[in-house]
Amino acid sequence: MADSNITKRALASALKQLMEKEPFSKISVGDICEACDMNRKSFYYHFKDKYDLVNWIYYTECVAALKEKGYHTGWDLLEDLCAYFYENRSFYRKTLSIEGQNSFSEYFRDIVAAIMAADMEKIFGGDDSLGFYVDFYTDAFLCAIKRWLLDRDCMSAEKFAGLLKNCLVRTSGSILQKYSEDKN
């Protein structure tokens, strides 16, 4: 298992280095293998394609680390997630720009949707419209992350996470207040 991770990390490092110079669409599996002096068989033993490698990078560098922390609040998770993206923004600016099947955006959306589904189920229970609510908030979050990271003058992770929290808390509070007033 240790040798497998060494190989995977070498391929990941090679991809990241190549992406500093080339757009993802121009990088082939052969380029990745050549950059770390490996053969294509080694690559395909570990990954289906270069998209799978990008998703593995995110999972091992971010998701696995975040899972181990055991967050008390979703806000703490959000802050750490934003800090990770900010620290690696050069890489994720490029990977979030890729659309389509097997793209990082699709993979990241699936992860966010799973988190949102758990939270939305606590709020809405078995509501028939749960899927709609999950999709709405997942798409909004993904769009906000993309817009933030792709902005040339990307604000700090702390500021972005704070603005997201402020927006959600204040909007929710206002809606609750209006809802309570309308019921009376």
Helix and strand topology:
Layout: H1 2-21, H2 29-35, H3 40-46, H4 50-69, H5 74-87, H6 89-95, H7 104-124, H8 130-150, H9 157-183
Q: Any idea what the shape is?
A: elongated
The ordered string of helix (H) and strand (E) elements is: HHHHHHHHH
Mean pLDDT: 89
Percent in helix: over 70%
Kindly, what is the distance between the CA atoms of the first and last residues, rounded to a whole number of angstroms?
Answer: 63 Å
Low-confidence stretches: none
Characterization of the model:
With 184 residues, the protein is mostly helical. It is built from nine helices and no strands. Helix 5 packs antiparallel against helix 9 and helix 7 packs across helix 8. The chain starts with a helix and ends with a helix.
What are the salient characteristics of this protein?
184 residues, 9 helices
Task: Provide a quick synopsis of the model.
The chain is mostly helical and 184 residues long. Helices cover 78% and strands 0% of the residues.
